[in-house]
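Try this one yourself first.
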């Protein structure tokens, strides 16, 4: 039987979910393939992958994909790795830069600004988001006045864990906290999805096993990520333990449904879009 090709996004938040696959567990059944987050969705649509981690809104946009039950990337409150960073007070915003890879975070930013702040700035999708400050990172343009940028993953964590807030002329909005305040529910940012022809008895078992191994290895994951990002490993371990959730329970289901409903209201997903879940006893 051919191995199932699993698309893995190399972002810190999601590493515990895929840790078992990355470390070679069930290598006779699965072939882990690390790709940038936007490419995973395209490869799934083209048949180049059998399963993969995708933003929640992408799972809702593609009716052919089936989400695995019980697992997700969620933020019960403060996210720290999903930030909207502005060079001016949010009330003055006229333009927001959204990265192409962060589709769930981009949808949340638009929902929060529209419904929480009554703002309708211009939105631009870019491969490299600008940063505020006199000396931005190499290769990044400077964020101008009345502009904001969506930061995710390691870039956001370096700001959140390394200190920031309003420092350096920045105003920072944590999207996990803002979403919770607006809706009362957790923010479900990502889901494991599979193509309909992907077949393996008790498929979900292997993904849950990968997460169990990841949760038992948080210190190792944090040390590896800290070395890459230049951050403190204990801070990263606390982030993974306290800020990110990986189980799709009743509260997360409510947050997921709320995200899809509000995204549809703004035209960010088709009207009537919904997540289709693989039956718990299938695979």
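Now uncover the answer:
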């Amino acid at each position: 039987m051919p191995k199932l090709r699993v698309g893995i996004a190399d972002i810190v938040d999601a590493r515990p979910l895929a840790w078992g696959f990355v470390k070679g567990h069930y290598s006779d059944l699965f072939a882990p393939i690390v790709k940038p987050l936007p490419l995973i969705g395209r490869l799934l649509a083209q048949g180049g992958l059998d399963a993969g981690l995708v933003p929640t809104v992408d799972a809702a946009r593609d009716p052919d994909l089936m989400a695995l039950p019980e697992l997700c990337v969620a933020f019960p409150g403060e996210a720290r790795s999903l930030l909207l960073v502005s060079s001016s007070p949010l009330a003055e915003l006229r333009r927001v830069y959204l990265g192409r890879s962060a589709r769930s975070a981009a949808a949340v930013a638009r929902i929060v600004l529209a419904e929480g702040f009554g703002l309708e700035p211009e939105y631009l999708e870019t491969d490299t988001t600008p940063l505020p400050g006199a000396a931005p990172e190499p290769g990044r343009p400077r964020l101008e006045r009345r502009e904001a940028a969506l930061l995710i993953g390691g870039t956001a964590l370096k700001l959140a864990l390394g200190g920031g807030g309003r420092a350096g002329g920045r105003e920072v909005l944590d999207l996990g906290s803002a979403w919770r305040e607006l809706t009362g529910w957790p923010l479900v940012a990502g889901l494991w999805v599979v193509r309909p022809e992907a077949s393996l008895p008790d498929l979900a078992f292997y993904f849950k096993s990968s997460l169990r191994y990841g949760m038992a290895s948080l210190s190792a994951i944090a040390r590896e990520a800290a070395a890459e990002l230049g951050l403190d490993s204990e801070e990263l371990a606390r982030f993974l333990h306290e800020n990110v959730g990986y189980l799709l329970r009743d509260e997360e289901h409510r947050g997921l449904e709320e995200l899809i409903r509000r995204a549809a209201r703004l035209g960010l997903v088709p009207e009537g879009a919904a997540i289709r879940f693989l039956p718990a006893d299938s695979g």
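Discussion: Residues 250-265 form the longest helix (16 residues). Residues 72 and 191 are 5 Å apart (CA to CA).
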